[in-house]
Amino acid sequence: MGARFVKNSNVQILTVKSLPVREVLKNIAEQLGGTVQEDCEIFSYTIPNEYGSGNIMGANFPQGLGWIQYMCKFKRDTTINFTVDEIHPLKMIYNLGDSVLHTFADSEEKHDMQRYENLIVASSNFNGHVLKFQANQQIKLNSVEISRSLFNKYWSCNLSDLDSKLLKAILDIEASEEHLMKGPYSLRVAQVFRTIESFDYGSFIKKMFLASKSFEIVAQQLLDFSTESSGLSSEETESLETLREIEHLLENNLSSYVTVKALAQKLNITENKLQKIFKDNTGSTGNEYIKNKRMGAITDLVENSDLSISEIAKLVGIDSTSYLSKIFKEQYGISPKEYRDQMKKARA
Predict the structure, then answer these.
(1) CATH 1.10.10.60 domain residues, the chain
(2) Would you tell me the crossing angle of helices 234-253 and 260-267 to the nearest 10 degrees?
(3) Which long-range contacts (CB under 8 A, 24 or more apart) does 157-165 make?
(4) N or C terminus: fewer CB in 10 A for the chain?
(5) Residue 227's pLDDT is what?
(6) Is 121 helix (H, G, I), strand (E, B) or coil?
(7) Nearest to 183 by CA among 131, 109, 237
(8) Which residues cross the membrane (predicted)?
(9) How would DSSP label each residue in 270-337?
(10) How distant, in Å, are the alpha carbons of 7, 131, 136, 303, 312 from that of 15?
(11) Which residues of the chain carry a pLDDT beneath 50?
(12) What local confidence, expressed as pLDDT, does residue 1 receive?
C-alpha cells in the first residue's frame, strides 16, 4: 500500500501501488501532500500549489467499472507509475487536453495521445502502466477503468454477439496478453464527456450520473469497434474533426450559427456535404442537431445562470422571448420561469 515519490529539478515521479480509485488518490496525496476529499464515494484530490494546480477525481461503481478524471497542470514534467501487484484494470483513456504519453511498465514504446484521441490499453499478467505529463500543459484526461473479472461476471452472457478487438481485451480476464487500441474517439463519446463537464449536482445524484455515463461510454465504444473494426477512414476522421470544430463554434458563439447555411459558410464547405456529415455521424439532420444544441444551451442557462429569459434568448440567437418560452414549453411542458423556480426549490 506504500508509495514512492522521486523529485529533481526536471521531473517528479509518482508511484501508485494500490487499488481501487480511492487508494490511487491517497497514494498520490501521500507523495505530494494534502488530503483526499470524499462526497458520496466520489473522491477528489487538489494538486498543491507547490506542484501545480487543478485536481484529480474518481470513483468506483458496481459491476467492475471505475472512472478517474485528471483536470490539472503540473509545474514539472510528471510521471505516474501504476505498479499494483495484481492484474490491472483495462483502461479506456480519453484525451480532451494537451498531449499525454502512455507506456507499459515493461516497455519503452511510447503511445502519444493527442487531443481528441483515445487509448485503450490492458497490460499482460501483473505488468503496470505509466502516464507521462509535460510541465505546464493543460491536462484533461478521462480514464474509464474496467476490472475484467468482475465486469465479465455480470456481463459476459451479453457480450457473445459482438466481435472486436475491444471485446477480446475485455474477455481476457487472466491478462494473458497485452492489448492496445488507439485512435480518435467518436463524436457520440465526445458528447458524453461534455455532459459530464456541465453536470453540477453533487453527492448521490452525481455518483449515479457518473456511473451511468461510464457504462454509456463502454457501450458506445463497443458499438464503435464492432462497426468500425478496420479503423476510421481519412474521410471519417475529417468528418469528426469538422464536427468538433462545429462543436467549438456552437459552444462559443451559438447566436451566430443557428442555421446549417451559416455553419457551412464559416467552414467553407457546401451545405449538402455538411448535412451528410451530420447524418452519417449523429443520425440527425443539421437543423435538428443545431436545434438540440440550442435547447441544451437554453436549459443549461435557465438552470445554472441568473440571466433573464431575454438575455438567454439573445445568447442562443433567438429574437423573441415569447418564441423561446414557446419552444421550451413544447420540450418540457413548463415555461422557463416555472422550470427555474422548480430547480431552485429542488436545490434548496
Answers:
(1) 234-347
(2) 120
(3) 162/222, 162/226, 163/226, 163/229, 164/222, 164/225, 164/226, 164/229, 165/225, 165/229
(4) C
(5) 62
(6) strand
(7) 237
(8) none
(9) -HHHHHHHHHHHHSS-HHHHHHHHHHHHHHHHHHH----HHHHHHHTT-S-HHHHHHHHHHHHSS-HH
(10) 12, 11, 20, 41, 47
(11) 1-3, 229-231
(12) 39
Tell me which residue of 153, 101, 106, 150 sits closest to 125, measured CA to CA: 106
What's 9's DSSP letter? S
| Number of neighbouring beta carbons within 10 Å of residue 71 | 19
* pLDDT the model gives residue 229: 44
Alpha-carbon torsion (60, 120, 148, 156), positive or negative: positive
pLDDT at 103: 96
- Domain 234-347: assigned CATH number: 1.10.10.60
Domain with CATH 2.60.120.10 in the chain: 5-227
Q: What is the pLDDT of residue 284?
A: 85
Task: Please give the Cα distance from 105 to 121 (Å, whole number).
Answer: 12
Q: What's the CATH number of domain 5-227, 2.60.130.10, 2.40.50.140, 2.40.50.360, 2.60.120.10? A: 2.60.120.10
